């Protein structure tokens, strides 16, 4: 019943948020470093942004609630695109307020063991990235960032519509990769 209520709430919020909102971090801003508990393919570990950036760019996306309709759609889309992100040298991580046990299940099912999801139970990461859902502050807003290996925001996008985040971050990542190679 609780998940049904969450799904209905997010459907209503999506209808209210027809256009994209702007996130507080702009292109060129320094991305706040963080370490959180994360799960990938049945394993839990500490995800540290600075360590991930040593390997290449990071696509960081915030989502409201594991197993809600929109978040499941978005996770499936990111899972389908994981190989293409890897070919571009990028690491993908999704972050929500859910606890690590819930995200461990979400990682195995909806994320298809393809990318990590992090538990931001105290909301410190989502607050530092201004990714709190203003109409329901217990939840993250659907906000995506592309962060360069130097720790700079190269793209940001906020929209409760779960269908555009993968295409937008992929296009931004490809654009950054082309520019970075010059």
Number of β-strand runs = 7
CATH homologous superfamily designation: Glutaredoxin
- pLDDT averaged over residues: 89
- Give a short account of the largest sheet: 7 strands, mixed
Overall morphology:
globular
Strand content: 15-25%
Low-confidence segments, ≥5 residues, pLDDT <50? 1-23
Task: Outline the structure in words.
The protein has 182 residues and is of the alpha/beta class. It has one domain (2-181): 3-Layer(aba) Sandwich (Glutaredoxin), CATH 3.40.30. 39% of the residues lie in helices and 21% in strands. The protein has 6 helices and 7 strands, in the order αββαβαβαβαββα. The chain has helices at 2-16, 49-53, 69-87, 100-109, 124-128, 165-181, and strands spanning 35-40, 43-48, 58-62, 91-96, 116-119, 143-147, 153-158. A 7-stranded mixed beta sheet has the order 2-1-5-4-3-6-7. α3 runs parallel beside α6. The relative contact order is 0.22. The model is unreliable at 1-23 (pLDDT under 50).
């Amino acid at each position: 019943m609780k998940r049904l209520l969450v799904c209905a709430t997010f459907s209503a919020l999506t209808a209210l948020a027809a256009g994209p909102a702007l996130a507080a971090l702009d292109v060129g801003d320094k991305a706040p470093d963080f370490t959180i508990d994360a799960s990938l393919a049945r394993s839990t570990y500490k995800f540290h942004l600075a360590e991930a950036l040593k390997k290449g760019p990071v696509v960081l996306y915030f989502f409201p609630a594991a197993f809600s309709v929109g978040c499941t759609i978005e996770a499936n889309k990111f899972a389908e695109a994981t190989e293409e992100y890897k070919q571009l040298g990028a690491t993908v991580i999704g972050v929500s307020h859910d606890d690590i046990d819930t995200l461990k299940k979400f990682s195995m099912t909806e994320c298809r063991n393809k990318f990590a999801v992090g538990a931001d139970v105290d909301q410190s990461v989502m607050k530092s990235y201004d990714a709190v859902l203003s109409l329901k502050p217990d939840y993250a807003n659907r906000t995506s960032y592309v962060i360069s290996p130097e720790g700079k925001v190269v793209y940001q996008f906020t929209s409760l519509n779960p269908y555009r985040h993968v295409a937008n971050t992929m296009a931004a990542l490809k654009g950054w990769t082309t520019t970075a190679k010059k």
